[in-house]
What does this fold into?
Amino acid sequence: NRVRPALSRAQAEVEGLIERLEPFAPPGTGAVRLGDAEAVEPAEDDDVAERLRGAVTALGRLERELSELRARLELSEALSDALEARILDVRSVERRIAAAVHGLRLVLAPGDEASAFVRWLESRGRGARANLVLAAAPIELGDLLRESLFTRAETTVLTSATLTTRRRFDFLRGRLGIAPDVLAEAETEVEVTEDIVLSPFDFQSQSLLAVPSDLPEAGPGAHGFDEATATVLEEFAEITDGGVFALFTSYAALRRVAGALRESGVDGRWPLFVQGEVDRHRLLDRFVRSGRGVLLGTSSFWEGVDVPGDPLRGLLIQKLPFRVPTEPITAARMEALQRQGLDPFQHFMLPHAALRLKQGFGRLIRSRADRGAVLMLDDRILRKRYGRYLRESLPDAPLVKGAWTDVRRRIRDFYDGSPALGGPRGPS
It folds into this structure.
């Protein structure tokens, strides 16, 4: 059996490569972009280049040995029938090895593809759970999608509640490579039909957008803002008796607010669920079953979470969800726009934040019977010029703004069923 020694060799070569790459992305440094202005390119190191060749060669040999083993098994009708599931597993492993080889080359030795991709290394976790991520992503998806999907499929249907910004598809069409000016110059004809289907929900009566204007500024490293967030969240939970999602844009802020809530004893009054302490599915299930929990989430909780009915009665959004400019994909996209003479903030950061904010808002109202307030703590949505763009991208909910004491009273009136704020209270 030649598979076992090939496997051992591949494992040793890959481990040696990873060990040599680790100094390029030490723990705590975040994502280290490759091939950027600072010319971080590990494969220019002779030792890294040699270990890369060794890993690619060893993985290629392992793939060939598995392929030969599968071929021999398939030649025997009896073995082929008896081991059908295992043969499919072997074929799947072959594809994964081939994908790994392609990935290693793309990240570390991309050749002519370098300009089309953003590449980075990132150390995640600590101690025994630490691992090194090698990643690459296309800077522009439009050409790829247009050539591989839109010009090949007879019909493609794109549908979502969050495809528009300011009731228009301009940003999405630009990202997907089907903007009118691009299609006008394309060799293959692609016809685009747009339609906005109005929501079945009555946001004027079912929801409220509340923005306090007297909280500490939501700037970088503003711990006072996190402390204020904990205070406001506790008072919001008192009004709703729990059933609240609090969405954050960073784990650091989430952890600080969670610590402050525990110090004030919030977890003794309502079940407190904090992302990262339990796996996502179990966390959400426990929140729903509790009926009056307070859940703190970031990242994946902004989208794809469906909690209709009474378990979710209020939503707090701490900060506007702007992307971090230094993230490799974001930085590369912004640079590409600058080369085109376009403003990266107006053409990427702002529309993306609008879509993300719309996704977060959408966690609250999931049926015609749902009712609740969205409490936005980042008052840049009011005082910055771009705030209007963000507000016009959201559902048409009544807006309440002012000092927190006044906003808190208006929120309480809303949940108590004030006719001026949308009629009787929903199920509770």
Summary: The mean pLDDT is 91. Residues 46-75 form the longest helix (30 residues). The chain has 16 helices and ten strands.
